[in-house]
Structures are given as structure tokens and as C-alpha cells.
Amino acid sequence: MRNKKTITAYKGFDKDLKCRDFQYEIGKEYEIDGEIKVCEKGFHACENPLEVFNYYLLDKDCDLARFCEVEQSGNIDKENSTTKICSSKIKIKAELKLANIIKAGVEWIKEKVKQNNLPSYSGDYAKIGSSGDSAQIGSSGYYAKIGSSGDYAKIGSSGYYAKIGSSGYYAKIGSSGDYAQIGSSGYYAKIGSSGKDCVICCAGRGSIVKAKIGSWITLAEWKNNKPVCVKTEYVDGKRIKEDTWYKLINGEFVEETI
Q1: Which helix (H) or strand (E) holds 102?
Q2: Tell me, what DSSP letter sits at residue 116?
Q3: What is the separation of C-alpha 167 from the centre of its chain, rounded to a whole number of angstroms?
Q4: 43 neighbors 85 (Cβ within 8 angstroms)
Q5: Is 203 left (phi over 0), alpha (psi -120 to 50) or beta?
Q6: Number of continuous H segments (helices) and E segments (strands) in the chain
Q7: How many CB atoms lie within 10 A of CB 200?
Q8: What is the torsional sign of CA 97, 116, 131, 125?
Q9: What is the pTM of this model?
Q10: Are 65 and 58 in contact (CB under 8 A)?
Q11: pLDDT for residue 139 is more than 60
Q12: What is the per-residue pLDDT across 41-95, written as a single tens digit (0 to 9) for each?
């Protein structure tokens, strides 16, 4: 369909800013002719920032994928089961760091919760939204999407491929499923993951995190009510240990006893 408006989305690339051997540049706009169809022809991106990790992941050798905010327009085709969009036009607006893409994912989930008033659910593909304080949320199904904006939330997820976003203070989030993507922007979050190959970001002040080998963890350090450092590390089991709580102090990951 022809879309007169632009759609803000997020796209992953390899380390050279290529996707399927096509070279992109920041600030440039691209257009393709012909019929546009998802997974067949066109420029692809995702409305959900966290979904880009389904296609481009960080690897253990730090050969990092790169992520950008983009604008899609022209002829549009969408996939029903995901937020993937295919378009005839795309503009590469700005490159985003890992912490930025996860924070954008948290905000995206919060907005969906607000728009759709999502109910609680326990099966696969659950979409759970909570805006009140002291929420207790549990999910055991695969592909859960959980958003919480209230303080003191306690969130547990045991299914694979969970996407969890929390913006309230003092959140306690536990995930045992593999490939979880967890983001928190509230202060003093405590996030633990026992699944493999997870991506976790705590952007709020005083947050701590632990994860298994093969996961990526991001923490923010605050001083005088301002963020002064955001750092991402790979849990290799040696320099960054698995199942060990970490806090960011003076720009370094420091083991935290709780």
C-alpha cells in the first residue's frame, strides 16, 4: 500500500553498516522500484526497537552489529505476526548505541501498554501491561512481551524470547528463559537472568544486574542526578563472571554483594 506518512522504525546492520550486502550511509535516503513484499523485496526495519536483535546480534568476539533509527515511506508492506515493515523508501536517520536501542525498546513497550491497555495473560505470545505501583507479574509462555511503568514491580518470566520493559523505580526482574531482552530505565532496578544469550540493560541510577555466559549487560552510572557513563560488557565467565551481581562504579563493572 502507498503510505503518505513516514514511519519511524529501527534497523540492524553489520559492523560495516551493510544489510544483505547493501551499503548504507548515515543521513542518506534510498528508494527501490517495483512490488514491495516483506522478506522478498524492499527495505526492512522494525517498529519495535528490541525486535532488531532477532536479526542482528552482538557476538562474543565484539564484532558488533550496528543499529539505526530510520524513516520508512513510499509503498509499505507489513508482517502480521511481528512489527517488521518493508518499504520502497528508507532514510537512515541516526546511529544508536546498544543502550539507546534498549531504552527505545522500553519506551516503545510502555507506549503500547498505554495505547492498548493490555491485559494479563499466561500463554505463549503473552502481552502484559501494568501501570500501577507494586505490580507482581508472572509469565511462563514463550515470546512474552511485558511492560511495566509502576514502582516496585516484581516481574518473572520463564519462557524463551521474552521482551521485558520496566520504567518504574525499584523493579525486581527475573528471567530464566533463553534469549530474553530486558530493559529498565527506572532507578535501583535489580535484574537477574539465568537464560542463555540474553541482552539486559539497566539505565537507571543504582541498578545491578547478573546474567549467564554468552549474555550482554549494560549499566548506567549516575552522579549528581545525571548519567555520566553507560557501559556494555559481554559475560565471558572470566573478566565478567556469570551469576554475579555487577554495578557500574567509576566507569567499571564492580562485583556487588547483596
Answers
A1: helix 98-116
A2: H
A3: 13
A4: no
A5: alpha
A6: 1, 21
A7: 28
A8: negative
A9: 0.61
A10: yes
A11: yes
A12: 999 999 988 778 777 765 444 345 789 999 999 999 998 767 899 999 999 999 9
